[in-house]
From TrEMBL:
<dbReference type="InterPro" id="IPR013088">
    <property type="entry name" value="Znf_NHR/GATA"/>
</dbReference>
<dbReference type="InterPro" id="IPR044533">
    <property type="entry name" value="FLZ1/2/3"/>
</dbReference>
<keyword id="KW-0862">Zinc</keyword>
<comment type="similarity">
    <text>Belongs to the FLZ family.</text>
</comment>
<protein>
    <recommendedName>
        <fullName>FLZ-type domain-containing protein</fullName>
    </recommendedName>
</protein>
<dbReference type="InterPro" id="IPR007650">
    <property type="entry name" value="Zf-FLZ_dom"/>
</dbReference>
<feature type="domain" description="FLZ-type">
    <location>
        <begin position="16"/>
        <end position="59"/>
    </location>
</feature>
<dbReference type="Pfam" id="PF04570">
    <property type="entry name" value="zf-FLZ"/>
</dbReference>
<keyword id="KW-0863">Zinc-finger</keyword>
<feature type="region of interest" description="Disordered">
    <location>
        <begin position="56"/>
        <end position="90"/>
    </location>
</feature>
<feature type="zinc finger region" description="FLZ-type">
    <location>
        <begin position="16"/>
        <end position="59"/>
    </location>
</feature>
<keyword id="KW-0479">Metal-binding</keyword>
């Protein structure tokens, strides 16, 4: 059985975001709720940890993509001639 909250209209009952686990969709009615990032509910530490690992991998992938693009933009200078070498001044 899923918990509902009353929004003010008798015909307008909506499921609450704390009704089920965000990973496995298990009902959270009358059970402990493990929260992550403020408003994401989980039925267990294991489900919460699974989501944390997914988020960490996603963030790591985004960071590596950004650093790759930065290094590419530093090394490429379209339309400009870049000379490299050693200059000795005496």
């Amino acid at each position: 059985m899923s918990a509902y909250y009353y929004s003010g209209c008798p015909e307008n009952y909506e499921a609450h975001y704390l009704d089920s686990c965000s990973v496995c969709a298990k009902s959270l009615h009358n059970s402990d709720i493990f929260m992550y990032r403020g408003n994401t509910p989980f039925c267990s530490k294991e489900c919460r940890q699974e989501q944390m690992e997914v988020d960490e991998a996603r963030e790591k992938k985004l960071r590596s993509g950004r650093s790759l693009r930065k290094s590419e933009s530093k090394s490429s200078t379209p339309g400009k001639t870049v000379r490299t070498g050693v200059v000795t001044v005496s």
